[in-house]
UniProtKB/TrEMBL annotation:
InterPro entries: FAD-dep_OxRdtase, FAD/NAD-bd_sf. Residues 12-360 form the FAD dependent oxidoreductase domain. Gene3D superfamilies: D-Amino Acid Oxidase, subunit A, domain 2, FAD/NAD(P)-binding domain. Keywords: Oxidoreductase, Plasmid. GO terms for cellular component: cytoplasm. Its EC number is 1.-.-.-. This is FAD-binding oxidoreductase. Pfam families: DAO. SUPFAM superfamilies: FAD/NAD(P)-binding domain. GO terms for molecular function: oxidoreductase activity. It comes from Rubrobacter radiotolerans.
Amino acid sequence: MSGTVSGRSVYDVAVVGGGNLGLWTAYRLARRSGLRVAVCERGWAGAGATIRSAGVVRQQGGSETAAKLGKLSRELYLKLGERLGLDSGFRDTGYYIVAETERERESFLRLVEVRREAGVENEWVGVEEGRRRFPELNWERFLGATYTPDDGYVHPPVAARNATFAVHLEETVDLFEMCEVREISERAGGYRLRTSRGDVEAERVVDAGGPRGAREVAALVGLDVPVHAVRHEIVTFPKLGAGMRHPFPLFFNVGKGYYVRPEERGALVGMSNALDEADPSGLYQIAFDWDYYERVRPDWEDAFPALRGLPVSRAWAASIDYTPDHLPIIDEPREGFYVLAAGGHGMMWGPALGEKMADLVLDGAARDLPREDIELGRFGREKDPDRVEDMIALPFPKR
Ligand SMILES: Cc1cc2nc3c(=O)[nH]c(=O)nc-3n(C[C@H](O)[C@H](O)[C@H](O)COP(=O)(O)OP(=O)(O)OC[C@H]3O[C@@H](n4cnc5c(N)ncnc54)[C@H](O)[C@@H]3O)c2cc1C
């Protein structure tokens, strides 16, 4: 698509970025208020981190906020599928987060209570019970696991399709692809966005630029937003070893930084190297680190022998977003200018983040979440030693 922004060029809200976060924000704003919304996406909707992801959706967060966001997202994915008359793309396989050390066991046991408080069905599964329920996992390695039966994953291309389709059906939303936002200036009553397809005026702007845009878009209005990008890697295997059940439940070895989920008749493994640092290239595609893959492979083959010695069908490495505490940013740091970022969990939290951003725009506050977990200002303050970071996250860089 080319040419100028068509139709009206004056909006109530301009969303910068048409990934999972920007699309869900536009969709929820339109459904709830009928506001006129423009989504400016410099490429194709959903084609940033969103379609490159593994799509894991877990309600087993590492804090109450994380658990609430996971629960709400799961519900919203399912509802959208129903509304569109299409499959939601969500598969509830059940999900084990395994504890390999005593320290993990203790904190995971505490988290079971936190998640239950947030309304998530969650239990501790001991080794004997684990062997009975999920015999394919090598429980010799573990001290137990937390488990939620209706966690799972969403197939990322379907999630992107549905969110794009939902936005496209809303009469008050215009989705502009190949529309890069290059400058943002304040004007009376709002903002003017200079884009590659002409000017857009809006009373309010939502920065949903993702790993490769949130920081840069905020900088256009002089704000410093600590959203960075780092490599995350995926491999898929076309099938499992002979006699293995399929689909099998997801599992996550947080300490080792990898997780395994079903993919078609085989499996997908996602992994992050704790030694990788923020990637400044600006690219979504990053070189795959085969040395790291070979170093970690024996670990997951030992934990889940169904994958032992299998050929790979696909392998890719891409930019994942992260924030310093792995929690999201949902804030209005300047009047009428909003920042939305997923802290690397934009598939499991994307729909809920869109809903919470709609709360903030329409009602002035994101309902049901503590401000200190989501505001931008938390990063500039002295660290409160009692404040919990989300420990159920990949080993993202510290800076
Ligand atoms: C390999 C991998 C695996 C992952 N697995 C999971 C997972 O299992 N579960 C999970 O929850 N999360 C996962 N993630 C993270 C998840 O994909 C992201 O958190 C999520 O997609 C972020 O959504 P977003 O909308 O913020 O970003 P994006 O999808 O990147 O969308 C941002 C959009 O903004 C656009 N943009 C940027 N700047 C501008 C500009 N100036 N003008 C116009 N448009 C602009 C970009 O083109 C892009 O399309 C994974 C990520 C990767 C890379």
